[in-house]
């Protein structure tokens, strides 16, 4: 059953639609650095909080990738978008791949950032879900930021690190845990060749959560996908290296346009 998720829309009403789908533990603000550059180029930018996150509903878990993909299709319907460019990071990238396989007619192009088509071991996700249900999301916020940003960036930008820690800690425990369960059971590797959308895969060279090899599997599996590796980026590369990620995204969108 699809949920109507919380979304924020910026840019011209008649611009090509770009939907940004975020990481586990984030809300739509993780994409703040990308909004202005895209709006200035005439794109209509839709950001949303994944189910169980931010201001979106928190249905009881577990969630599946099909649930998350269905929410994104419902979001497109809500905004009258027949097709959209989908930019997803981590869990958002997994959602984008699901759409590429199961709702190809709704996808103009895909940008898959710092993500994986299969992210084991399942026990790690089951354990993390259990921890969060027991101790809340604040208990994983420090470790989360440790994966999202390189240690050098945390040291140089303590305010950004604090902002992201608070973002993770604010996610409802059930929403976070139920989303972990979607990743736990996910395996999209065999479906990658079915994705026909023009696809850009972006990896962070220092990403400990979804290392570059995961991006190579995706880029190798999707026909004609392009791979870019960004130096000095951990898992939340779009936030840590916004200029480089935004330039890559814009270049891809303009080429697809």
Automatic annotation (TrEMBL):
Domain Peptidase S33 tripeptidyl aminopeptidase-like C-terminal: 194-239
Hydrolase recorded as keyword: yes
Major enzyme class: hydrolase
Gene: pcaD
Lineage: Bacteria, Bacillati, Actinomycetota, Actinomycetes, Pseudonocardiales
Gene Ontology molecular function, alphabetical: 3-oxoadipate enol-lactonase activity
Organism: Amycolatopsis speibonae
InterPro entries xref list: AB_hydrolase, AB_hydrolase_1, AB_hydrolase_fold, PcaD/CatD, Pept_S33_TAP-like_C
Protein's UniProt name: 3-oxoadipate enol-lactonase
Keywords linked to the UniProt accession: Hydrolase
């Amino acid at each position: 059953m699809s949920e109507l998720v919380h979304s924020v829309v910026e840019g011209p009403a008649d611009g090509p639609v770009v939907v940004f789908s975020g990481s586990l533990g984030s809300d739509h603000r993780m994409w703040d650095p990308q909004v202005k550059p895209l709006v200035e180029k005439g794109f209509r930018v839709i950001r949303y909080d994944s189910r169980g996150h931010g201001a979106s509903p928190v249905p009881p878990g577990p969630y599946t990738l099909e649930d998350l993909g269905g929410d994104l299709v419902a979001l497109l319907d809500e905004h009258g978008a027949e097709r959209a460019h989908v930019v997803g990071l981590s869990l958002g990238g997994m959602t984008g791949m699901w759409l590429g396989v199961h709702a190809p007619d709704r996808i103009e192009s895909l940008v898959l950032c710092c993500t994986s088509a299969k992210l084991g071991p399942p026990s790690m996700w089951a354990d993390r879900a259990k921890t969060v249900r027991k101790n809340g999301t604040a208990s994983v916020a420090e470790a989360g930021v440790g994966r999202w940003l390189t240690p050098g960036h945390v040291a140089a930008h303590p305010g950004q690190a604090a902002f992201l820690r608070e973002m993770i800690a604010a996610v409802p425990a059930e929403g976070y845990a139920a989303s972990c369960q979607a990743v736990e059971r996910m395996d999209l590797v065999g479906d990658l060749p079915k994705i026909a959308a023009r696809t850009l895969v972006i990896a962070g060279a220092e990403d400990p959560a979804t290392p570059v090899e995961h991006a190579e599997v995706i880029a190798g599996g999707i026909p004609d996908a392009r791979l870019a590796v960004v130096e000095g980026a951990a898992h939340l590369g779009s936030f840590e290296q916004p200029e480089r990620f935004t330039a890559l995204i814009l270049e891809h969108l303009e080429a697809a346009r």
